[in-house]
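in:
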């Protein structure tokens, strides 16, 4: 459908905007993906192989990294990276067993799991029916359908960092920064009631539901943690 194609085209721009608004410093040995990056470019810049970075970050698709995504670019503790892309235990060539000719255990270590998102308490941004859920691929958030003009409220206290319609496919869009880690986005609004730089309270009315750049009246709502989309329904109270 046309709306789906438009949303996919706009996705990269939205990810860049959200990551730019909410980027937090990363620790040594990690790198935050920037616009225009590829995995091979990141690997070269950090003198690592693509295979190492894929392994350390459990990447199922090396061609599908996102702006704002945090990647490990240095070996996990207890391993070293080799020039051909393999990771070896540090015991190799240093332990008595290795010097005596016994092959060191070359089984690659388990990749570190992603750090769990710190909890954030949200309220529902609008009344209505959830007509589309989060899947992390084609849908980066949830869609809530209701009648035109239904109040849209801030899901948590924060600062408005974007208010406009410059991201095609999202219509009248608001982005609220809650802290160094979290952002929420509110798309397809009929009317925006707050401005960039404005501080809003949790539950405050910030917009009215509409159908700008959409084939139906609805709110498209996204939650991002360190620039990456996560399922907002897990942070919303049950209805």
């Amino acid at each position: 459908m046309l709306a789906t194609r438009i949303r996919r085209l706009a996705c990269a721009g939205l990810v860049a905007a959200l990551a730019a608004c909410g980027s937090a410093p990363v620790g040594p040995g990690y790198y935050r993906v920037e616009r225009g990056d590829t995995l091979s470019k990141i690997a070269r810049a950090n003198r690592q192989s693509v295979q190492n970075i894929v392994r350390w970050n459990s990447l199922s698709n090396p061609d599908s990294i996102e702006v704002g995504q945090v990647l490990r670019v240095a070996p996990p503790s207890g391993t070293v990276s080799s020039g051909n892309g393999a990771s070896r235990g540090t015991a190799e060539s240093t332990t008595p067993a290795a010097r005596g000719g016994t092959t060191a255990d070359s089984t690659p270590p388990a990749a570190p799991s992603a750090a769990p998102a710190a909890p954030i308490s949200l309220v529902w941004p609008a009344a209505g029916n959830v007509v589309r859920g989060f899947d992390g691929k084609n849908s980066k958030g949830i869609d809530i359908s209701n009648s035109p003009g239904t109040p849209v409220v801030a899901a948590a206290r924060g600062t408005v960092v974007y208010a406009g319609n410059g991201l095609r496919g999202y219509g009248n869009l608001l982005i609220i920064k809650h802290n160094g880690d979290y952002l929420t986005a509110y798309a397809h609004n009929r009317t925006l009631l707050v401005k960039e730089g404005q501080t809003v309270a949790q539950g405050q009315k910030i917009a009215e539901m509409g159908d700008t750049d959409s084939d139906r009246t609805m709110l498209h709502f996204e939650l991002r943690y360190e620039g990456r989309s996560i399922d907002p329904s897990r942070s919303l109270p049950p209805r």
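note: Residues 1-15, 17-24, 82-116 have pLDDT under 50 and may be disordered.
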